[in-house]
What we know:
Layout: E1 34-37, E2 40-42, E3 44-46, E4 50-54, E5 62-70, E6 78-86, E7 92-93, E8 101-110, E9 116-128, E10 137-143, E11 146-151, H1 166-174, E12 183-188, H2 190-195, E13 203-207, E14 241-246, H3 256-270, E15 316-319, E16 324-328, H4 339-345, E17 356-360, E18 377-378, E19 380-384, H5 386-393, E20 410-419, H6 425-449, E21 455-458, H7 480-494, H8 503-516, H9 522-540, H10 559-568, H11 586-598, H12 610-619
Parallel strand pairs: 3-9, 11-20, 12-14, 12-20, 20-21
Antiparallel strand pairs: 1-2, 1-4, 4-7, 5-6, 5-8, 8-9, 10-11, 13-14, 15-16, 16-18, 17-19
Helix pairs in contact: 3-6, 7-8, 7-9
Amino acid sequence: MIRINKSFVGIALGVAYGILPFFVLAADTGNQPRYYKGKTPVDFVFCGETYAFDIANYSGKIVWLEQDFKKDGDFNDTRIFSGPFSLPMLPYKATCNKDEGSYIANVYTLAKNGTKDQFIGNAFFSIEPNSVGATDAEFKMLDLGIFSLKLGSDHPAIRNKIYFNPDGALVELLRRYQDDMDVIAVISTQSLVNFVKDPICYGCAYSTRALADGIGVFSQELNPKYIQLHRYLTSGGRFNHVAIISVNDHVGSNASDYAQYTYVLLHEIGHKWSTFIGKSGGYGTNPLSILEEQQFAHWGYVSDNHDSLMAYGPARLIENTDRTFSPLWKNSSSLVFNDFDLYLMGVLPSEQVTPMFSVSSPILGPEARQGNISGRLRGIKRNITINDIIHLDGTRTPAFGMSKNNLTNSMRISFLIVQGPSGTSKELNNTKDFISTLSRQLPSEWNRATKSLATISTFMPQEKKPLEGFAVGVSDEFTDGEIKKIAEDLLHTVHDDTTEFSKTTREKQKDFENSIGTGSSLVELEQQLVTLLRRLQDLTGEILCQVPSTTLARHDENSEVTKLQRFLSQFTHLYPEQSVIGYFGPATERAVTRFQDTFGIPKENGVVGDATRQKMRFLCGVL
């Protein structure tokens, strides 16, 4: 007898937002194992969230599953399941403090004798600690744009005691304040460094979402801990980059500390744009010979870097009369962003970019590209223009502006000082004084480094407020699933099959009023629904509120029907099928009729006419 399983714990590596995923799914022919949250394919979930698993071509069938699990901080996988498995998987709610970690599943067809047969595919998945609502932390605003966070030993950012998860700390800031800064500088203190086993970088950076097209990306694999921020990235928000800097207990005691850390901060902010050239060829490529060949993320050792802050190599490479090249090193305080940096930054037009050059086939050997330069270089001079980079990575789009959501030359930065459990008030005060002074010096240093083409300022983000019209308990700290559930309850309250409130409807409305603290009129309830839909779109990043521009009816098949179905699919009460296929069939017609009945839209009888579209526009806030 074959033992069949319908439930198991997750599978696949997560992704970092705005940066390449760890695992790129192959083109899906129906044989690709997929994880779903609701009906949306996902690579990870947070503990406490519910997910499922299926393979399109094998749904409803029995397969052979082998699943391995690796806890954060462990080096080896553990086989936790091997045997027949029935698809689709029953929805499973990930348990906090138990299921967190990375999973990989290999799926095979099932032979007639009940053993595994041919390989179908595999999937990677992770279940992440949920930092939302974490109480094991002390958060403070120290000054405008400068915050502190003291972590308890059980906080998700350091709970495993192996590494520091910066996203786990950042959510403490972003759940309280809007994402309307460009950069958050995370300042790790000595008490934090001492608490975790793995070292925390002296200076490093990562991006949380795409900045612009045509500027390359850093394709080195990132740690799957960097994936928790998506629920706080609103569709119009500017936050897109994290710079991490570590300081010690005595920082600021020497005057040279300010120059040193100013350089580090400018450099790590610069990694928003530079220097990821030709990454379409994969990590470890250097097609123009202008990158260093250790991390492939900085201007190189055998190129004329025009005094760039983003270079690992010399500031300049001087061409001598005997066709040799001499490296010229300069003090970090005199370095700036070169023209290539400023183009990638979005503040210098391509036609104004001064060319660089590199030395191909240096006589000192290929090790020169890794920094082993003992004297003069001999080799072939190769001129590099900005058009060479555009040819590799495409034209920068948008051409001007710091990012897609910031089409200006003005940067906003906020600071978050993070202490470990043993952090003292003395440590915090000393670090705060240092960062306050650094932040005051930063605008002039940024102006110098960008050749007066851009500005930067310490920014105080807008504090988040409870959802307008709701009780304090229903706040921006709610997840997309929780917000959607409130919207569903509200829609049940609004919906009634008769033209007048029935007793049942009034009772439901009264119960709902008690839970959210709102008024009693349908107009007020509709206004609450508008607020929820906007918040849901901000949380998910999905454009759900798309209103058809034409009249639609049964048997229509086009992209306007897709917009209609995407809108209706937000409400399982109206559209339980939730099918988004672009065809207006009987299920869509029933959903439209329910929508019209709900909001008292007469005489359209399942046809999406002017009155229906007007109500949709109102709910989407696009009137």
